[in-house]
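Re-run with default settings, no changes from the original entry. Doing this only to confirm the output is reproducible before filing.
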Amino acid sequence: MSETNQNEKGDWKNREIGALWLRKSAAGNKYLSGHVETAEGEGIEEEKTRVIVFANKDKKNDKAPDYRIYKSEPQQAAESPAAEKPSGAQGGNSSEEEDLDVL
């Protein structure tokens, strides 16, 4: 591997603040879940915040976001990932959910 490619990889690794995984609920709805790492300054320990991302079902115009990010709350074993969805994010398979495949 060239030195330039290694430097670029190192730069991206240093800039990474989290990761997301594409998931599918028991009802067949697609969403992203993962974590974001935060630290306010040098010498402060990084903290991982678990997040979940849903397509914005209430998008009415181009200025509205395509996706909404929420803090993920711990699930109980019997709960399904669909139970984590806020009331505005519920719904069947829509074109917005299918767009997650593009990510």
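The longest strand covers residues 30-38. Residues 87-98 have pLDDT under 50 and may be disordered.
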